[in-house]
Design goal:
With 219 residues, the chain is α/β, with parallel strands linked by helices. It has five helices and 13 strands. The two termini are 20 Å apart.
Length: 219
């Protein structure tokens, strides 16, 4: 099995106490793909022995980035401990050439790390409704994928280190990008959640499987 570090949302419980949160859908999805998950707390650094065993880093979705990551002045619900933890893990992965998979917020975090920006839903021409699938395209393929986000990366705001593969053409936003030199693959949509289009679900899963099996490359 592939041993993967996976990040978590930073939330507060009913008493206002900060907590980690990892959705079961991630656990089910990656366990079925023979990936052994090691959740990383936002409030404690993992031991060096844990870091050295990592073969993959998964930056998950859920919630806003910090305000400076957006093109517009926006109101956000910050996750400062998570931001600090994900930056530490991402820098470690880059330094040690560990493949990185970004999902939704994780994709936006990677783009922001390299100097890119994010926009809110109100900037987009075609407003997307959470839970409703939409079409994305590459140069050769069209897929119908899920939608569970309010933040987007427009093509002109993508960091120069990153190469877009699929787009939401109606809004000029990036849905999948890669960085082969740094072993990065990232999705704006959620591979682990429901798809109306079974073929798109399987193609996405195959892409992730190939990325993992080839240790960060899409061959």
């Amino acid at each position: 099995m592939t041993r993967a570090l996976i990040t978590q949302r930073e939330i507060k419980d009913a008493y206002g106490v900060p907590c980690d949160c990892l959705e079961k859908s991630y656990v089910d999805y990656f366990t079925e793909m023979s990936v052994s998950l090691v959740p990383v707390s936002n409030f404690a650094r993992p031991d060096e022995s844990v870091l050295k065993q990592a073969e993959l880093l998964i930056l998950t979705g859920g919630g806003d980035l910090s305000a400076e990551c957006y093109t517009e002045t926006v109101s956000v619900s910050p996750q400062p401990a998570r931001d600090e933890t994900e930056r530490f893990l991402f820098e470690y992965a880059l330094k040690h050439q560990i493949p990185v998979l970004g999902i939704c917020r994780g994709m936006q975090f990677i783009n922001a790390f390299f100097g890119g920006k994010t926009v809110k839903n109100f900037v987009c021409k075609e407003k997307r409704t959470c839970g409703t699938d939409h079409t994305i395209k590459s140069e050769t393929e069209t897929l119908s994928v899920n939608h569970y986000h309010n933040d987007f990366i427009k093509t002109e705001n993508l960091a120069k280190e990153l190469t877009p593969l699929f787009f939401d053409g109606e809004n000029g936003t990036v849905e999948i990008f890669v960085c082969p030199e740094k072993k990065i693959l990232a999705f704006q949509y959620h591979p682990e959640r429901r798809f109306s289009d079974g073929e798109a679900y399987l193609k996405t899963r195959k892409m992730i499987r190939t990325f993992i099996d080839n240790k960060g490359l899409l061959l």
